[in-house]
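dumping these here so i dont lose them again. two proteins, back to back, each one seq then structure tokens. dont judge the mess
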Amino acid sequence: MRLEEWEVTIRTIVDECNHEQQRPDRILTKWRAKLEQEPTLLQPFQIDEIVREVRRRLSNDSR
């Protein structure tokens, strides 16, 4: 899986995490459920890859 193909989704999740004042875990849990369903039907390891990238960007933003 190429993360470049999911750039729009990754940016959307990061923006949502930055915009909401709640913990990112809640937002990431919601997105995990969304990505498991159609039309994406991503495998758990693919979702983990996206979530890792989101967390990396969030940690970079907080510096």
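---- next one ----
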Amino acid sequence: MSFIESSLKVRRSIAKMTDTNSDDWFLCLKARFGLEIVYSAIKEVLGPGNVLTTPYTCITAINPIMAGGLEPQYIDIDPALLSTSDIPADRITAGTRAIVMQHTLGIIDNKNNLYNIAKRHNLVLIEDSAHCLLRMARGTDDLPLADISAHSFGVEKVLPNTKFGGAIYVNPKLKDKNPQLYDKICSYLITLKQPEAALSFRVRTYRFNNSIIQHLPRPLKNPIRNFAIKTKLLEPAVYDYEQEGRQASPRTTNEYVNNSILKALPGLKSNYDRRRANVKYYREHLQSKKFIPIPQSEDDEPLLAYPIVFENTTFANYAYDLLTNAGFFIRRWYMPLLYPGPKFYQLYYYKPEDCPIAESMSPRVLCLPTDLPASRIHQIVTLLTPVDKPVEKNSASVEKDKISPNA
């Protein structure tokens, strides 16, 4: 199957799975590449300005804003969603161009408040669905709400066997809202070039090379990985220069990536079924005064990971050590903020005082796996349920870390 044929088949497949039109989907090697194109078009059509987003995210979600010539500005998070759910009126100015609606770990806010704000102020609504592949915020008519929706097939996302690939949905309603912007985004996305030979090699050999590194003795892992990246044998999830506000030139997929996606897509339903069942089990069985499960609703979404926020960092660190020592891979998204953290936060226009809730919660959240067999999920719950209070050397500092779930 050729690149063109496989690209069309991917677009048709994801359109069918989302009840959308294949003409509205565009492929890219990484979701961040597609987003850079979107932000570049926004700047060209609407002029320089800012994008309202969250610091509780990956740095690769912010770099496209900057690479596109716009400035990120940060809104604090709702602790029940781990994402921005409202925007103070004074934060929307004449220079505001877009709002990012991030579904952190797959938690979709069904109140659609950001959509209403974007509509009221005629702003572009960018949906970050990187953690909830092919799931989108929808209106009462069941149609997608966002102007742009970004999805990822990349590393550490929903599908375990796809390591590369992104998909950008351009809502056809944007054509009525701003036809010039719609045409510019589509024309740029459709003309993305395929990866050059060296990048294609790293993409094709990623799983093999990464597997070798993972099986090395611990003292050798990081030196060998760094050497492989430096010599351009391995494509990392995040390059060093991506912690400095830069990213590589945008590229579309290639035939290898397309075929990997096509092979994995039939397993998405069972993948989500397992995650949904595990989320339900966590919600029903995790009860502790020492942490708060998020989300607290009874809507058992198929989350990428199930987040729990501890009342202080001491408990969080203790539980993390307990679970990792038992052999579980526990993510600490997003610690630090703008994960894995910029080399210089000033480059990213970030001011900690603007986001006190995100600052407080970041080191206290553990993200529990949702893709494991039920027996392993049961083991995690068993380990967490009787988490005893660890020795606290400085009770004053622990008390300072506490935050109300309704803050």
